[in-house]
Amino acid sequence: MKKYFLIFIVFIIGCSHRDFGFREDNPNKPYKCGWVWADKKFIEKKVKPYFDMYGFKKGDVIGDIGASSGYCEGVFSVFSDSLTFYIEDIDTTCLNNSELTKVINYYTKIKEAPITNKFFLVIGNEKNTNLPGGIFDKIIMNKTFHHLDYPDDIVSDIYKKLKPDGELYISDAYSAEDKVQ
């Protein structure tokens, strides 16, 4: 039986995709494709509780839908090793090798050690994640669900992507009624 966790919280990680450029020189500020934190203490205090909530274990395969540049996976890599992340988004402006490389290089400096997690980029579309089927221990959607034009299609697609005991985490502070028409 599949387990689903619907978590109504405002996730500390995230911002609009339309903010600024990559900001190594301006810590704790949004950049075009996510968020950059320069202080490991801040990350441990504000981000690690969310990381712990997911209960990632070495060897887990994790999908992140609407993941932008992979900035969450970058900051999660400060606390983890030997995870496999599939970073999915429909926006190739943010989801590309150049942006992911910036993220990984940045958080490698914060971690002060090599990042050993694996990262795969997946370009989805409005109705399909294009993630591989049946391999995921966990799939997370952070501040993404309210953006979906076809939520039934995406949730149906996600169901096919999870392992039999896989878990889906949805963190979203918005409802469908909040969409601007």
Explain this structure.
The chain has helices at residues 40-46, 48-54, 71-76, 97-111, 151-161; strands at 3-7, 29-31, 34-36, 61-65, 84-89, 118-123, 136-142, 162-171. It is α/β, with parallel strands linked by helices and 181 residues long. It has a single domain, classed as Rossmann fold (3-Layer(aba) Sandwich), CATH 3.40.50.150. The longest helix is centred in the middle third of the chain and has 15 residues, at 97-111. It is globular, with a radius of gyration of 15 Å. The chain starts with a strand and ends in a 10-residue tail after the last strand.
Topology:
Layout: E1 3-7, E2 29-31, E3 34-36, H1 40-46, H2 48-54, E4 61-65, H3 71-76, E5 84-89, H4 97-111, E6 118-123, E7 136-142, H5 151-161, E8 162-171
Parallel strand pairs: 1-8, 4-5, 4-7, 5-6, 7-8
Antiparallel strand pairs: 2-3
Brief summary of the model shown:
The chain is of the alpha/beta class and 181 residues long. The protein has helices at 40-46, 48-54, 71-76, 97-111, 151-161; strands at residues 3-7, 29-31, 34-36, 61-65, 84-89, 118-123, 136-142, 162-171. Strands 1-8-7-4-5-6 form a 6-stranded parallel β-sheet. A two-stranded antiparallel sheet has the order 2-3.
